[in-house]
Write a structure and sequence with these properties.
The chain is α+β, with helices and mostly antiparallel strands and 209 residues long. It is built from four helices and 13 strands.
Length: 209
């Protein structure tokens, strides 16, 4: 009985080891508006794990072996991450802008923007007729666009496929911020040159609004 229990425990352990040691590739990039850009690539292939840290606009890069425990921490986080796509533009609700008209005795004619015009002449695609209010209207949409700032993007390639993300700094939420902090922690753990203080300032400044 003890022998059988030991075999079961060993089987469970080997399966857990296989799950936690899955091959994967993770890419994290930051493209700032006016500062240095960075790329971090973490690979695990057949239990050999590496981290590559590169300043994107130069040949300054470092490649180090990374501990399996740190890979497991990253995988656990990414398995609970929703990989959002949040660009620098937010599209708001659609609204209607009504145009005052005057109905003339001859119902084929109306006063439209101060001019008498036949109804059938108003056939431009941008004008629609609202039967409830008996008015013409155009449709618009609220749009907010940022023209500067930092973009964080990358992907997680594993046995579950390839999942991409892209987040503009003004739209970062708590989980996005935690991912950036986790990546920065790994950078400083495996490159002791302490040349990433500017990157830390950027990440800290891009906290959730």
């Amino acid at each position: 009985m003890k022998h059988r229990r030991l075999i079961i425990l060993l089987f469970i352990f080997l399966n857990l080891l296989k799950i936690n040691s899955q091959d994967f590739e993770f890419l994290w990039e930051i493209t700032p508006f006016a500062r240095k850009a960075y790329t971090v690539r973490i690979n695990q292939i057949k239990n050999r794990s590496t981290i590559m840290i590169k300043e994107s606009y130069s040949n300054d890069s470092v490649v180090k072996r990374i501990k399996t425990n740190d890979c497991d921490t990253l995988i656990d986080f990414l398995n609970n991450y929703n990989f959002p796509i949040k660009g620098s533009t937010i599209y708001g609700s659609v609204f209607k802008k009504y145009i005052d008209i005057v109905m003339l005795p001859d119902t084929n004619w109306i006063i439209f923007k101060g001019d008498s015009i036949r109804k059938v002449a108003i056939n431009w695609p941008e004008y629609k007729f609202d039967t409830d209010s008996n008015k013409y209207y155009t449709e618009g949409q609220m749009i907010q666009t940022w023209t500067d700032g930092n973009t964080y993007e990358g992907y997680f390639l594993s046995n579950n496929g390839k999942r991409k993300y892209k987040i503009y700094c003004a739209r970062i939420d708590k989980k996005d911020f935690e991912l950036n902090q986790l990546v920065y922690k790994l950078i400083t753990m495996y490159d002791k040159k302490n040349t990433y203080l500017q990157l830390k300032e950027v990440i800290d400044a891009d906290k959730p609004q």
